[in-house]
Amino acid sequence: MQIVTDSGYDLSPQQKEGLPIHSLPLKLTLNSVSYRSGIDIQPEEFYAMLEKTDAMPTTSTPSPGEFLELYQKIAETDTDILSVHISSGLSSTLSVAQVAASQLPHLNIQLVDTRTLSGEMGWQVEAAGRGALEGWSLEAVLQRLAQIRAASEIVFTLPNLSYLIHGGRISHLKGLLANLLGIKPLIGVDKTDGKYYDRGKARTFQRAIQAIPAYIASKFPEGTHLRAQVGHANNPDAANKLREATEALFECDWLPDFSISPVLGAHTGRGLVGLVFAPLSSLPA
């Protein structure tokens, strides 16, 4: 079984190592220059560039032809292909992959909408890669992904809403009002439609960081044993504060921190910090 994905996921370098996955990069354009996220430009370089420009980046998906070429190439080794993608509620990548897959009816291409992105999507991508390494059946891997998708959640906050507003990912009116009032939202991704929704608000960015574990505590009792992972957009100080605040309320099995990829950071700007979490008891063994 071959695993295909896109660069809408985030994992730490330790998690990525040795994973047998084929990733088609999402693309971003900044100052009239186009980059393939994670290939032509890395997070540290991208966020440094943002600091030096007032220009707003734009993003785009791979083309159907790029998916078609990749599917045909890897099918020479194995015609069973699991294609795992960023939420269809936030990107058209899945629909582009569907167009390509429909032109290859002789291949067994199974498409998965993760209904999320970034580190939470990364958990599903990693599970698919581990399953392929261990020789699991397609059905067994799909079941595992469904369990992870149902159990996990991502919540993030950010100091500046301008990039989200520009990218059209949140209501312009709500975003502008929040910016004017200095309100910092907690944002999550709904598993029904895979779109962004408010999970809470705080008056300052520092309070928003503290509000993330408080939000988790509204769902699970304090002391719950969590699998957890912090991600950030070039903001290690905020990442440390979020980890400390979460540890004050929960028992955590921590995965290594991950950096928000350039193509996702194009919609958030520098400074974002977020947490992927799931009760350990709800995850597959």
Describe the protein in words.
- The structure is a single chain.
- The chain folds into 2 domains: 2-26 and 61-151, Rossmann fold, CATH 3.40.50.10170; 153-282, 2-Layer Sandwich (Hypothetical Protein Tm841, Chain: A,domain 3).
- 38% of the residues lie in helices and 25% in strands.
- The protein has 11 helices and 14 strands.
- It has helices at residues 13-16, 43-51, 64-74, 93-102, 118-133, 138-151, 162-166, 172-181, 205-217, 236-247, 262-265; strands at residues 2-6, 21-24, 27-30, 33-36, 58-60, 80-85, 108-113, 153-157, 184-189, 196-202, 225-232, 251-254, 258-259, 273-279.
- Strands 8, 9, 10, 11, 12, 13 and 14 form a 7-stranded mixed β-sheet that branches.
- The two termini are 21 Å apart.
What topology does this entry show?
Layout (H helix, E strand, L loop, with lengths): L1 E5 L6 H4 L4 E4 L2 E4 L2 E4 L6 H9 L6 E3 L3 H11 L5 E6 L7 H10 L5 E6 L4 H16 L4 H14 L1 E5 L4 H5 L5 H10 L2 E6 L6 E7 L2 H13 L7 E8 L3 H12 L3 E4 L3 E2 L2 H4 L7 E7 L6
Parallel strand pairs: 1-2, 1-6, 6-7, 11-12, 11-13
Antiparallel strand pairs: 3-4, 3-5, 8-9, 8-14, 9-10, 11-14
Helix pairs in contact: 3-4, 5-6, 9-10
